[in-house]
Each structure stands twice: as C-alpha cells, then as structure tokens.
Amino acid sequence: MPPVDVKANAWFQCVRGCEGRYSVFDVIYHCPTCGGLLEVRHDIEALKQVSPEEWKRVLDRRVRTNEWPYGSGVWGKKEWVLPNLRNENIVSMYEGHTNLFWAQRLGQQIGVEDLWVKLCGNSHTGSFKDLGMTVLVSVVKQMMADGSTVRAAACASTGDTSAALAAYCAAAGIQAIVFLPRDKVSAAQLIQPIANGAMVLSLDTDFDGCMAIVKEITQDKSIYLANSMNSLRIEGQKTVGIEIVQQFDWEVPDWIIIPVGNLGNISALGKGLLLMKELGLIDRLPRLVAAQSAQANPFYLSYLSGFRSLVPIKAKKTLASAIQIGNPVSYEKAVKVLQAFDGIVDQASEDELANAAALADLTGMYACPHTGVALAVLFKLVRRGVIRSHERVIVISTAHGLKFTNFKIGYHEGTLEGVKALHRNPPIELPPDVHVVRDVILRRLEEREAASARVG
User: Which of 26, 150, 351, 352 has fewest C-beta within 10 Å?
Assistant: First the structure.
C-alpha cells in the first residue's frame, strides 16, 4: 500500500503566529522570536490536492491492513502527521484503533441515549500517550540516524507519559530518562518505565517541580524533551479525534469530553478535528469539554474569567494523579481550541470522580480516576440540561483502570479520603457452610431485584 501521491510537508512554527519556520528534526521547543510554544504546521494546499472522498477511502483501507507502517492508527494517517519522516525510522506498536464502548446502560441511567466511551487505555502501555510517543521517538530515531548529538529522551511525568516514553525508546534502542514525583504515582505506573530500562529519577516534589527540572536538563541539546510542550506529541495524539469520526462512518458527534491536566490532549483533539474540517472531510465541529479535578483546576479557573490569563496554582493531591498539574504548559494552545469549538471547562470533586468511575464500572467498564473526572462532568452537564438526551456524546477514557488498582481497592474498602462510596461492593466473608452461603446469595438476589424494581 504506497503512500498517497501528494508532496506534503510539515514544519515547526510559532503558535502565536510568528513567521519563522523550523525543521521538525531540529532540537527546538520555543519560538526564538517571542518564546511561545511551537506547533507542527502542514502544507494544507498540498493535502487538498486529494479529494475528501479519496482521503476517506485511503484511511478506511489502512484500518484493515498490516502493511508497515500504515496499520497503525497514527501512521495510517502519515501524510497528516509527519510526511517527511522516513518509514525505516518509524517506531510503532500499531497503536491506535482503540474501541468505542457503547455505554448503553450508563446512558440509560443518566438520560443520554447515545453515549460512547473511547477506550484509549486499550493500548500497549495502557494510555493515550502511546499515540504521541510513537511520533516523538520516531523523530528522535531519525535525528540520531542522521548524525544528531541527541543521546537520550527525557520527560517529567505523573505516570503515563513515562511509561510510553520508556516503551517506545526501548523498542528503538534509545535511552529514556524519566522524572517522577516521589510517592505520587501508582506502583503499576512506577514499574512500567523501570521494566523498560528507563533511567528513573524519583524527585521529592510534584509534577510541576519535575517539569521545571526537566526543562533545565534539556537545555543540553543531547537530551531531547519528550513532554507535550514538544508539539511532535500533539501530532500523534490528534489522531484520536480523527479516529472517532472515522469509527462513526465520518459522522461528527455532538460532544467530546476529555480529562485535562497539562492541556496537550485537548489541544491535540481539537487540532485533528480542525484539520479534517479544513480538508473537507467534515462540515461541522463537535463541542468539546475539558474536565479537571477540583484539586488541580487552573484551566477551569481561567475559563471562569473568560481566559483572561492563566494563574498557576499549587495543585492539591487528587485521586486523578495524572492530571495533578497546577501550571499547564499547553495553556495557549488549549485556549485557542476551546474558543474554536465553543468549548466548556468544568471540574469534579474527589467524591464525584470516584463515584462516577464506580457507577461506570457497574455497567461493564473499568474506569481510571481520570475517566471518572470526565464522567462526573458529563453527569453535571446532563443534569443542567447543557447536554441533551438525544445528542451523541463521546467520553475519552485516557488510561486503563488496571493502572489504578489501589484506587479501586480503596473505593470498595471505603478508605478513600473525601469520598463517600455510594457503590461499594466488598467481598462477603462467610464460613464454608453451604446453607449459610445459599441464604446469603438468595437474600442478596432479592435485595438486588427489589432495588431494580424501585429504579424501574
């Protein structure tokens, strides 16, 4: 399956509109003119040489292929992601193509007829971060192949980014360096980069403290910055919005809700959807909702003031540890996206996110706490009448619940601080007596049927 016959190109350019262009294979993260973040720009006129219907046919064919590298959910859109990357340098685990879970029972309970959950955690390292890391590590591999002085790639992380960086670097034979806030990531997240051979540095600080240090360390151009302020990550992550629309036979949903922390994910989601509209594959945009933990809510606070400014905060401890960020680096990009999509920012308390995740679990999911944040915000918007019952709603689940086993155990043991667990389901300890066991089973079944009848 050859690439589409189009002479596309991509480069770095300032998100604030400065005119300089820079190679995506240069070690550069900020605009030299104004200091703003860079973003990857594409030759849209070249991409428009292919008709919208032909793009749809090409992208649909690639979903069903194992031909390298087009079977990847990211690299199946290579012309839209990074056309000037040589295929031999692509580091891919055929990421993407994650399923949409039809949350029919949960939707019935909250009053949404067409509710879906995009299970981005059903990926190699268990989170959506794989989508961005395949692009960044592939670029590093090509840079090194072409004689760059880069020796390693580094990131600050609350868990998922470090896992993705470590895995993709291990596959490429590149050293990964990860900075983790001590005692603020789950054991499952901590062991992932360790197992993949990363140099793991556990610092007695929070994510923002780790981020400040990694930005200093990567001033040395031999260590490449892998956080989402590097817009190569955004290019991979933007495919999630494209993939959602493609999975609905190119129909655009009404709403997409996503949990946010450093704000790279909402920026990426919007970027992919805007590209589709610019190329003529879709004629309207969904509304986007950014969901924050109330313990780490600088974007929500800025939204309340009409995005006049970002006031960094000291993020408080939250069960949604991956978004415990008080000074998000992709703020400017995220504001532009929210304004383009008539977006909403809302927040969820610890009690709300934990109970939302538990309720979803009772309908067949296994929601991470960050997905719980997005679900809790969904419940609020439905109650307020902002989201209406007939509208198609997509909630993006960013990570697999198995990464947060202690969160699940704590909920059902009733030990989570600040959480009144409404859906606890602890194991029933009984003697090995068949009569006692039978009596308990029958009593519980009767209680369940009576409760169902009351709800019905």
Answer: 26
Token pair 């990074």: residue: 82
Burial class (CB in 10 A: 0-12, 13-18, 19+), 293: buried
* Entry pTM: 0.94
* 232, 24 Cβ separation under 8 angstroms: yes
Cα separation, 23 vs 86, whole angstroms: 14
- Which residue, 165, 267, 157, is CA-closest to 224? 165
Q: Rounded to whole angstroms, what are the CA distances from 441 to 111, 227, 361, 435?
A: 31, 51, 21, 10
| Distance from C-alpha of 397 to C-alpha of 382, rounded to nearest angstrom | 18
Residue 84 sits at φ, ψ, to 5 deg, of -95, 20
CA atoms of 16 and 336, how far apart (whole Å):
10
User: Please, which residues have CB within 8 angstroms of residue 41's CB and are 6 or more apart in sequence?
Assistant: 10, 11, 12, 13, 21
Bridge partners of 450, per DSSP, are none
- Range list of β-strands (E), 139-221: 152-156, 175-181, 199-203
- Yes or no: is domain 100-126+234-413 CATH 3.10.50.40? no
Beta carbons of 125 and 402 less than 8 angstroms apart: no
Q: Quick: pLDDT tens for 194-223.
A: 999 999 999 999 888 999 999 999 999 999
